[in-house]
């Protein structure tokens, strides 16, 4: 019963299902990557798990349903990094990371010494100490991504949701961000669910892939099992080469048609 | 493990700002009590105030009659200016926080139009039916009008749009404002003789302030201000947007309705006794933000103090410059407020 269990999860917008009957089981320390074309329902599924949109079906964490939890209780269990987080320009890095402590601070209270310790610890751990008093508006894309991850980690939740964590980053920063998440999930035994567009990176860092198409899980398993030319052609409508490296890495490269399509 | 230097606002710093804010209000109040037509020479007033403090005895040379002018005419006016200024600024800062829009004011959801309609109806009916009433029905009608208008806005806004959508609420406010203004215009057309009274009320005034007015609004403003100040940390979390605030454990729609109701209650009470004093709810929070940054944990309490001091000060030129007639305080705040608002817009544009 330990871990995160999704059964028949369904998300509707105005009567139209964008996610339907997703089943998945994740144990602590496991990283699941949601892949699929735009509009497949990846973000909607993550937003449902984060409590931002309503869903039907069952989502259990360590055996108890999350849908009965208050926003505050859910935020202690599930942390969410959106694709385009809102970073107020003139909020300091420390104040921003402190927002992650909100589920532990009473509505009318203020942060405790423990909250400050947690925030200071994360800022140090994520090598943000030199930026601690800087304003968010002065940070680069890579720094901003680390700050947002630090805020999510401040929630000390066993589940970390990441929506396109690398979409705004260059290749080096993509690697740094994913390495960071990989290190943290091992150190803190986190369940990570991420949505990603870069299939090579998705296969490289996650334990398992779930390919969504029109809200339905159509393929699941390891990178070798899911990332196949015919699968990608069918669901992404892409003509791609899939290269299997000797170390097990699966590389997906789109093929140029030379004007023949 | 926590390095104190990481935290930009140490606890001692916050206490200092509260004290400085309180000091600014006291200073403005002393100036406000000292200046005005009739009454003692201006420099004698601080002395007589000190004399009135316990354990102090100073010969200020102020006669009892002069003291009455200070205490019965100027003091309630200063107190009311402080309460109304504090309330409008705090409500403005709170509205701007929960709607994440720096350009909204406390009149956003229809308080002003509703209160205006209530006051107009009271003036129109006042002549015959209410002439013998022991209390003035205008503030009460304005208060009820303001609260009803916002209740209508909220009901319509949440019935037609998802409760998480602030935009629907704001648009509903625009519709309710238009509706109330239309009805008000209709009532005025039918009662031409009260146009002048209504016009003077809309401009805002503290002229006839009494201690009774202060007692009338104090409970509402106190409840409203305490509620808004208690929510200032949560309002600050809303700066990252509804969705992320929700994911951080904030019940966004609940917080928004509590803040809007509290701000409306206080604003309606302020409008009921002072009329429509414009721009205070926008320029004061903005000035605080320019100086102190946008953290609502600081902007809310400092706006309250700065608003109190500002409105006390804004009330002074109105009663001196054009003495013996009075310039309405709404004219003074708008006269300084409109250019300042344009200046802020320009600064904002330059920053982006």
Please provide a written account of the structure.
- Chain A is an alpha/beta fold and 261 residues long.
- Chain A has a single domain (4-254), classed as P-loop containing nucleotide triphosphate hydrolases (Rossmann fold, 3-Layer(aba) Sandwich).
- Chain A contains nine helices and twelve strands.
- Chain A has a six-stranded mixed β-sheet with strand order 6-7-8-3-9-10, sandwiched between helices. A four-stranded antiparallel β-sheet of chain A has the order 2-1-4-5, with helices on one face.
- With 352 residues, chain B is mostly helical.
- Chain B is 74% helix and 0% strand.
- The radius of gyration of chain B is 21 Å and the shape is globular.
Can you say what the CATH homologous superfamily of chain A is?
P-loop containing nucleotide triphosphate hydrolases
Major sheet of chain A: 6 strands, mixed
Q: How much is the radius of gyration of chain B in Å?
A: 21 Å
The outline of chain A comes out as globular
Low-confidence runs of at least 5 consecutive residues of chain A: none
Shape of chain B: globular
What name does CATH use for the topology of chain B? ABC transporter involved in vitamin B12 uptake, BtuC
Q: Uncertain spans of chain B, ≥5 residues at pLDDT below 50?
A: none
Count of individual helical segments of chain A: 9
Proportion of beta-strand residues of chain B: under 5%
Termini gap of chain A = 50 Å
Second-tier CATH architecture of chain A: 3-Layer(aba) Sandwich
CATH superfamily of chain B: ABC transporter involved in vitamin B12 uptake, BtuC
